[in-house]
């Protein structure tokens, strides 16, 4: 049984009634932090923010593995829409790389279809059903995710975004409980009236045994121990780390001609490849690593630099998802 097959325990599930939270509800696909020196539980699933009133503190700020929302899909449904952790994680992957998802149901058995891993970033017409196991073709090329149904049921829940109006500069020695870093990603559901903020999300803990972080916010710019983080690199690595077929393929390359750190973007950010083109000097080069087809993300070098002044060892949590690729 894979990690993505383990049934959530009762305390990992939540029935979320949107009408109980006039201050707004937001849902994100949640994965382990790209940098983590804490002893906190590993994050994976659906992260929930919910406020009963505007401007109030969050009544819910927690990650669950399964949610139920009271939204009837049709006249025959039981009135609840399920939000699953694997759907949410793959929604995050698709959205970080700029892909919209659509509702796809198996043409043979009607099972809601999820395109995972490689398929979450490659629109296609032919799918293999996770319900009946048979292949079927959809009417249009796309990326299937059951969470796309939320856009149909809650069309007003999509809001604009803005760069977070704050910056952060900290030293790790001031937070013995450790630091966690994630990239922002578009919410699956966003009902607050204010725009969604983008940037780098940081938790910093005053002590190892603390359950709540002293720093907990999203920032346009983050500097830790004098090292300024790149938000795009952070966000990209977060999505790359949630794609099991890329395991061992994410490296940090430097141009042999000008020594600039190389960052693969666009389609190359999720496609391992041999030939690289320096964005600084235009020099073409190849990886000298053991794996020839790789993807370069300089945040790996940033992690190593941060680790030198970390209060605790850097964790390398993995989701344990099954790879799915051609």
TrEMBL record:
Protein name, UniProt field: Uncharacterized protein
